[in-house]
# Entry
Amino acid sequence: MPRRKGKEGLTCKNCGSKFRSQKEVKIIKIWHTFSPFPDKDGNIAINVFATWECPICGARGRDKISSIKGGFEYKGKNYTEILAKIIYELKETTVEELSKRLNMSEETISKALKYLIAEGQIRAKLDGKKVIASSGQEA
Ligand SMILES: [Zn+2]
# Structure
């Protein structure tokens, strides 16, 4: 028996077939999203999503197939968008300023920013404690 880890597995919305893991279906595409801010321990939850094809009926589904750190959700608030909006509006700001605005620690903001920038979710540069919005294709 495979080890059980919370609710894992996929269900075909078309024919109702259940699959214990993504290994049993045909994966079309995989992508990641993440809860944009780390928790108090500095961990960012990364969710892995997949578009997959049911091997029984051929229907496609999109589901979360795993979470690198579970149990951590931001209820309805999209901090990535809020953060991006502030940065784009101010063009240039600091980690300190963002931490005040979002009421989060500078360390948290810093970690989230590094991640979001690296992932291309926020088009900006982090220069020490400075956050500079980048416009278009900047070198
Ligand atoms: Zn199916």
User: Anything to note?
Assistant: DSSP finds three helices and eight strands in the chain. The radius of gyration is 19 Å. Confidence is low (pLDDT under 50) at residues 1-6, 70-76.
